[in-house]
Amino acid sequence: MPTGVAIRDVREQLFDAAERVLLRDGPSALTSRAVTAEAGCAKGVLHRHFDDFDAFLAEFVLDRVDRIAPQAAALCESAGTGTVAGNLADALTAVFESVAVAIVPLVIFRDELRARLREAWPAGVPVLTEAAIMIASYLSAEQALGRVAEDADVGTLAPTLIGAGHLLYADRGTTPPQAGAVHKMVTAVIAGAVREPLP
């Protein structure tokens, strides 16, 4: 690792390496040595920028949570276009084909990581909770346009979609569910809430 590299560059390099290890080998394989080996740098580099490995993991998880913000903005901007089910299926696919599914067992696997995350994230599982907020915001936007029923409980529909999506994607190895399966699940969950587009 050359000297003089900006801290942000080192952090991103380590976070990207952690994501690759997590997705490829699972949470039990995510060690400081595995991350630095994957990043192609000395083990001491990680410890120069983070207090310990759990501090690194907490920052990694929160960094991946922050990446949902652009997806959330794009999803809300899609309100009134396409179909509600299609927009939701695309959004869920983007969330669950990212590192989201792998982060859930990582958080469950490490007690100290959960404790660190509670300092910044008081409730829920990071990434999945943020994704549920994104879905609820989108459904509220569609509600305002009349494409989702005014009395629909978006606060319940959103986590229901996240939970059902997680079940579709969890523990599938390298084969994600087909797009049709995701769309079918979304259509079933929102069937009672969606209205035909207004003319």
TrEMBL record:
<keyword id="KW-0238">DNA-binding</keyword>
<dbReference type="Pfam" id="PF00440">
    <property type="entry name" value="TetR_N"/>
</dbReference>
<keyword id="KW-0804">Transcription</keyword>
<dbReference type="InterPro" id="IPR050109">
    <property type="entry name" value="HTH-type_TetR-like_transc_reg"/>
</dbReference>
<feature type="domain" description="HTH tetR-type">
    <location>
        <begin position="8"/>
        <end position="68"/>
    </location>
</feature>
<dbReference type="InterPro" id="IPR009057">
    <property type="entry name" value="Homeodomain-like_sf"/>
</dbReference>
<feature type="DNA-binding region" description="H-T-H motif">
    <location>
        <begin position="31"/>
        <end position="50"/>
    </location>
</feature>
<protein>
    <submittedName>
        <fullName>TetR family transcriptional regulator</fullName>
    </submittedName>
</protein>
<keyword id="KW-0805">Transcription regulation</keyword>
<dbReference type="InterPro" id="IPR001647">
    <property type="entry name" value="HTH_TetR"/>
</dbReference>
